[in-house]
User: Which sequence fits this backbone?
């Protein structure tokens, strides 16, 4: 393995461990901070890739990642979290905390097996299992938590995983990449607006909606 | 030569273990802006306890009195087989490998639990059930960690693990090693009863290990406490010498080096003690059922080490 | 000359620009005018030849989608003017509503003409962004919860299809449809697997947006709680637009495994809709499950290709008109009965005769009853299933379709022809809109040779 692969491996597994940490954590500010850290890690990875391969395009991508995911989105999310933000926490997770940590671990193993059984022949490197695992874990974070913030963070983790895919596969054409970035920002903004509405309207989060059943 | 070194190691552990605990206690008090007891306080406690008379519950069997001596001797046996002041096996080194060492630890714990049940005290029972529940979860993690190091070094011998990590920077820096080390550190906190898991206050609610020796007094209590300090010190040594910082452990039987290393080793232990103090002073105790989340994270880290190994195909 | 192909988009873009200006008070008139402009320009495009440039790829299918989208757009705008007055606790003002509506249609119109799978993904994701707030127009708890589920599930699903885009790009080294359609036969065998995964993930991902089985859960929530014109647009246009992306993937990767996978998901969707439509309590949710049913059978048709593909297109068009009509009518029922529940709505044929009878026919149309275009499409698809998969699968599909037919029509009959529990009311003239749409759904049957012609020859000759 060359240095880049090593850096990828390091960042990738740290990302996975950070997702596990998010499963563990119940306070939403801490989850947001952890997400910020994981985004900065990806930015650092891009920075290294950009420097070693001498591609300014990737350096721009690193700066964008650090700026939007590392700083802007966490900042925005923390601003939405206005009422009593140190106490905002996951009150009613759908899956218990220790079982969700263990399921997340199981997902990591499944992700690895899935990848090595299906795609590893094509890509000639085992590293591809990391983004797949991260993506499945992000999905699981969405499923296992009832807090909108954690669900949105789960979605953002899936996006981060997408960016890590970019390392293994060739980069998409610039216009597509730009469109994707814009779209994702749009999704975050819209989600922020909806979360805010939801915080205003829904007084206790554990309400059952009979109108949304069946 | 090896035989005398063994005796040196035994004395080093047995005599300095209470001091280490004393230093940790003192540092904690200093961080809390208190004066705190002398670092030799544990010795004074032991001396006082040795002078007191033994009282055993009426219902208890003779095993109750024998248990402290058995566990103490098991810990003494462990001091002879682990790499503490040397990175080459001493006279008793070939007796057991890492898994065997784990089994001896487990045996000492089991004897302690049986004796606690034998005391017929409610608090001791409570402590036993808690310790067993947590132990049932944390011991498989230790096994996974041993397996991961076995995979790295192709052996279960702690001396070889130390040598491999000492000589190969690649392995030392590898993610496999660090995930396993971190998992071991979390298990270490569980095993030594540090703060997120257990607080050594007088309240019975959070007691785990402490509750098991509730009915002991006098000499037996002193032996139990001393054994506990030794277990603590041994685990800290294993963590530092084998996992986290395997450097400077002498690989040749050179008396001068070994004597110098004694000091270095103690500095390492104090480093770890400072880390413990920081953790102790920044975390608050978990509620009992949240301990399992903590153990689950340790398990995850140990497993991730395995996953890294397979992802990289076993190369570094 | 290319400029003409963009006219529908320019019209809706103009509409959204004018509606966002707060000092203009004519947002309703503007929206009606631009929607008609979009409709007429799309019909005009039908007569033009196909177009392939760097950015745009307009073939017969795109043209049909353009016309369908703008037709439903016109109906939805007109119906909105009536409906929005009756929304009690509006989240935003009416000019912002029309701005979002126009933008939403703009993104959908964009999706069907692009010549780049990546940009199609971007456009489909953009429809999520533009449509999310529209669902929560009626500002109450359940609605906002439904909106949130829509945003998070659909976005997560679309991330999966983004992987598909990356896989396809890494094997073909291009995302342009015009080239993708030619490249597959020359692909080396080692690439077959990754293109297969690209196809499969693309179907799952875009299938999320189309309400296809494993990730359909947002659909009943969103359709059930959105305002009626928005439910109509979602069901009639948004789901087919996502299917359009799936169709492009199926065209680009004509792999048997991918086709079987698409067929299986379609069948599972039909099965789900069949079983769920029996025990529905809320009528809008029930019709949402009918949408899943129709999208499932359309996906089956797309996976089979050939004349089943024509059948799918027929179903999509007829369903667009019929389902938009049905949702408009349920909106009218909701306004007059002020209840979402099937049990509390009785005797529509007596209280609101025109609404009641058209709802009955609308329900028949969306479940594939003979004179309507959906029936012809289902027939073509069933024949194709028979030829490909044999008699058992055909019977199973037919059984599921029949179950959905019985489940939905039985509930509708209970609502329409029972003893009324409300006074007789005056019918609003707006009912003309759904009736026209129902007639169009009927007309699809007779226009099928024309549609065939447009699909395969590109233009209306």
Assistant:
């Amino acid at each position: 393995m060359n240095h880049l692969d090593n850096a990828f491996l390091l960042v990738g597994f740290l990302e996975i461990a950070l997702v596990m940490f998010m499963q563990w954590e119940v306070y939403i500010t801490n989850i947001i901070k952890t997400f910020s850290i994981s985004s900065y890690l990806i930015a650092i990875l891009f920075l290294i890739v950009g420097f070693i391969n001498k591609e300014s395009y990737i350096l721009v991508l690193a700066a964008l990642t650090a700026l939007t995911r590392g700083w802007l989105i966490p900042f925005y999310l923390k601003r939405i979290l206005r009422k009593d933000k140190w106490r905002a926490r996951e009150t009613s997770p759908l899956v218990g905390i220790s079982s969700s940590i263990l399921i997340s671990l199981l997902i990591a193993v499944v992700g690895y097996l899935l990848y090595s059984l299906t795609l590893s022949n094509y890509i000639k490197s085992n590293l591809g299992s990391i983004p797949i695992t991260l993506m499945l874990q992000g999905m699981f974070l969405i499923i296992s938590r009832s807090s909108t913030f954690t669900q949105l963070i789960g979605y953002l983790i899936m996006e981060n995983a997408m960016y890590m895919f970019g390392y293994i596969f060739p980069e998409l054409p610039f216009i597509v990449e730009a469109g994707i970035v814009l779209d994702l920002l749009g999704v975050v903004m819209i989600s922020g607006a909806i979360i805010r509405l939801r915080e205003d309207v829904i007084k206790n989060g554990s309400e059952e909606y009979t109108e949304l059943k069946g | 030569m090896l035989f005398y070194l063994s005796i040196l190691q035994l004395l080093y552990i047995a005599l300095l273990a209470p001091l280490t605990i004393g230093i940790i206690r003192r540092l904690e008090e200093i961080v809390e802006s208190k004066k705190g007891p002398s670092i030799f306080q544990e010795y004074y406690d032991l001396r006082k306890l040795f002078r007191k008379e033994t009282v055993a519950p009426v219902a208890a069997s003779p095993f109750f009195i024998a248990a402290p001596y058995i566990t103490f001797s098991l810990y003494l046996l462990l001091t002879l087989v682990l790499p503490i002041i040397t990175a080459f096996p001493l006279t008793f080194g070939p007796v057991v490998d890492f898994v065997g060492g784990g089994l001896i630890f487990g045996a000492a714990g089991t004897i302690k639990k049986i004796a606690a049940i034998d005391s017929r005290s409610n608090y001791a029972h409570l402590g036993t059930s808690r310790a067993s529940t947590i132990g049932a979860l944390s011991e498989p993690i230790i096994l996974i960690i041993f397996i991961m190091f076995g995979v790295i070094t192709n052996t279960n011998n702690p001396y070889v693990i130390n040598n491999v990590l000492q000589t190969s920077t690649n392995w030392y820096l590898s993610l496999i090693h660090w995930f396993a080390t971190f998992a071991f550190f979390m298990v270490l906190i569980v095993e030594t009863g540090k703060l997120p898991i257990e607080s050594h206050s007088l309240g019975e609610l959070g007691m785990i290990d402490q509750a098991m020796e509730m009915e002991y007094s006098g000499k037996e209590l002193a032996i139990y406490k001393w054994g506990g300090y030794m277990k603590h010190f041994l685990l800290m040594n294993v963590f530092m010498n084998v996992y986290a910082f395997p450097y400077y452990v002498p690989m040749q039987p050179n008396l001068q080096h070994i004597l110098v290393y004694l000091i270095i080793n103690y500095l390492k232990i104090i480093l770890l003690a400072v880390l413990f103090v920081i953790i102790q002073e920044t975390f608050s105790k978990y509620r009992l059922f949240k301990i399992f989340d903590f153990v689950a994270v340790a398990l995850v880290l140990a497993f991730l080490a395995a996953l890294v190994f397979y992802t990289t195909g076993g190369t570094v | 000359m290319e400029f003409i192909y963009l006219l529908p988009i320019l019209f809706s873009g103009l509409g959204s620009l004018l509606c966002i200006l707060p000092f203009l008070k004519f947002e309703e008139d503007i929206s009606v005018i631009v929607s008609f402009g979009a409709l007429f320009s799309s019909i005009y495009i039908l007569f033009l030849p196909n177009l392939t440039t760097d950015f745009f790829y307009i073939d017969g299918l795109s043209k049909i989608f353009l016309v369908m989208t703008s037709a439903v757009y016109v109906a939805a705008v007109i119906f909105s003017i009536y409906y929005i007055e009756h929304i009690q606790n509006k989240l935003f003002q009416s000019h912002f509503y029309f701005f979002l509506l126009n933008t939403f249609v703009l993104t959908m119109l964009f999706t069907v003409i692009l010549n780049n799978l990546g940009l199609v993904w971007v456009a489909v994701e953009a429809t999520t962004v533009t449509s999310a707030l529209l669902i929560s127009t009626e500002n109450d708890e359940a609605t906002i919860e439904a909106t949130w589920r829509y945003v998070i599930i659909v976005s997560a699903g679309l991330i999966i299809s983004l992987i598909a885009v990356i896989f396809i790009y890494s094997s073909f080294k291009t995302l342009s449809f015009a080239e993708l359609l030619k490249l597959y036969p020359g692909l080396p065998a080692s690439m077959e697997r990754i293109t297969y995964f690209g196809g499969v993930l693309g179907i799952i991902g875009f299938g999320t947006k189309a309400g296809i089985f494993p990730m359909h859960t947002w659909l009943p929530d969103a359709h059930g709680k959105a305002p009626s014109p928005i439910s109509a647009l979602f069901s009639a246009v948004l789901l087919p637009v996502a299917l359009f992306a799936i169709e492009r993937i199926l065209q680009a990767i004509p792999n048997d495994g991918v086709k079987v996978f698409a067929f299986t998901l379609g069948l599972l969707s039909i099965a789900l809709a069949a079983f769920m439509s029996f025990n529905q309590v809320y009528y809008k949710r029930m019709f949402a499950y009918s949408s899943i049913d129709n999208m499932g059978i359309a996906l089956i048709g797309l996976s089979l290709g050939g004349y089943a593909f024509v059948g799918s297109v027929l179903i999509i068009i007829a369903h667009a008109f019929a389902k938009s009509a049905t949702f408009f009518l349920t909106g009218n029922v909701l306004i007059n009965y002020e209840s979402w529940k099937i049990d509390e709505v009785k005797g529509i044929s007596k209280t609101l005769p025109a609404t009641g009878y058209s709802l009955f026919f609308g329900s028949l149309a969306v479940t594939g009853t003979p004179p309507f275009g959906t029936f012809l499409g289902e027939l073509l698809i069933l024949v194709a299933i028979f030829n490909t998969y044999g008699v058992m699968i055909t019977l199973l599909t037919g059984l599921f379709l029949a179950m959905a037919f019985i489940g939905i029509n039985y509930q509708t009959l209970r609502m329409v022809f029972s003893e009324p529990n409300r006074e007789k009311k005056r019918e609003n003239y707006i009912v003309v809109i759904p009736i026209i749409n129902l007639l169009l759904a009927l007309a699809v049957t007779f226009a099928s040779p024309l549609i065939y012609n447009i699909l395969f020859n590109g233009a209306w000759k």
Summary: Residues 2-312 of chain B form one domain.
